[in-house]
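INFO  loader      accepted 1 record
INFO  loader      residues=165
INFO  predictor   begin
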Amino acid sequence: MYVLDYHQQVKRINQMIPLRKNDKTFEVYYHDPQSGELWKSFFPYGKKKSNSPKILRPEPLPSNLEHQLELCLNSGNLADAEGLGIEYSLSPEKWEYLLNLLDENRKNYTRAGFFTFLNKLGVKDPDKTIEALHIDFNSASISREKLITLRKKAKKLWFKKLIGL
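INFO  predictor   done
INFO  writer      dumping tokens
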């Protein structure tokens, strides 16, 4: 689903037809003539973070967040969990809901996908993530206290999954 490796992206993009390009957001949409799918290539952090990863993925993602987690964390390809984690690292306001979903369904996800997603989500070190994204707490939709609570919850989830609870 997600393609993060540069060489695989180039190989895949060369097989597709560019449809639309946005120079401001660095998004490019492609049509895959073999599968008929629409693909999106983009830098999720844009100009906010230097050396940010480029992501190539099918568009649109399933609208149900639970289904997205199920697909990406159980795909067997860690790039899927990594890509989804990177995308949602930009939305700290969704972290609580994501952590609740992960807690409810943690036994349904592979251990490697679960840990990779949590690492890339950035909730285990929210200060570093917020600083990298240049988010101002005065205008942010989430408070510093809430982030501390979410970090504790993420660490508990990590431990629960590690020992198999």
